[in-house]
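hey m, so remember when u said the tokens were messed up on ur end? i reran from scratch. heres the input so u can diff it against urs
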Amino acid sequence: MSNSGIGRVAPAIGPFFVAPLVAEYLLGDLPIKMLGALVIMAPFYGGGAILIREIVRRTGRGWPAIFVLAFAYAVFEEAFTTQTLFNPNYMHLNMHLLRPAYIPALGIGAWWTIFVLTLHTVWSISVSVALVEALVPDRATTPWLGGIGLAVTGILFVLAAVASTRFEIKHDHFVASKAQFAWSAVVCVAVILAAFRLPVRSTAHTSGWTPSPWLVGSAALVAGSLFLVVPGVWGWRAVAIYVLLDLAVIAAASVLSPREGWNAQHRLALAGGAALAYAWRAFTQHPVVGNAGISFRIGNAIFAGALIILLVIAARRTASQPDPAPSTAIGA
């Protein structure tokens, strides 16, 4: 591949690693000594993020479509790959994920369902894509891969999904019911179809007050932090808080993003504030695997520091780059 070809596809390498690092390591679910797990998680998380981003950009759509497809990815992962939406004792870790706000008819816990689907939709996919696009603002709305690159990414994603699913079943021995798989598939297909019913990007602006990027980032940090600290034992009260937070952020972004003055710095601030919520939260929780010893906290500091460096670099680049055409909602 020529240097120009390498330069063209180079940005796609970003989500490949940023997505799993944000999803599992920045939050503190996995310790830094388990970076070897990226062999599977990079093609799965990162592959999913790249596929979503590339398909949306190729079809001329914007952030609303990325967000909706990220939700479909979240359902796919948690319903089919890890099956945590239905497993009452995931990996025998005695976390009791389904107990708060349990819905017997569906065999799911409303608390865990909304919590984990929001994590993947917002942080694993949307935040990760936004952070990388902010590093290359001049190419934020254009495709990064050709047909071959997209095909290879898709193959790697499928292989990683199969490997992850086989690993989960082999070590957990749990398999959801046919009905649970069936309605999960219906949800995935319906959400994917809905994403492509959304309008393409528009250059139209609306008038009105536009907050500063600092205010947007602070609001995202507060909203993300509130979401992460609400105790699951609150059950239906936690569910209500999650729904209100999700709807409030979506509504605010949908109203503000088409306005004159909303630009790449605002999108970076939105993603950066949410990512910083993950970073500080990691220092207060116990990892899903292993112990919260000194090496784990050092890892937390390394990932948080890397995030801050990334945000500083991205902020400088977005500040010096003219903004591409905005979307009809939630950024370009």
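this time it looks ok to me. The longest strand covers residues 102-103. if urs says something different then somethings off w ur setup not the seq
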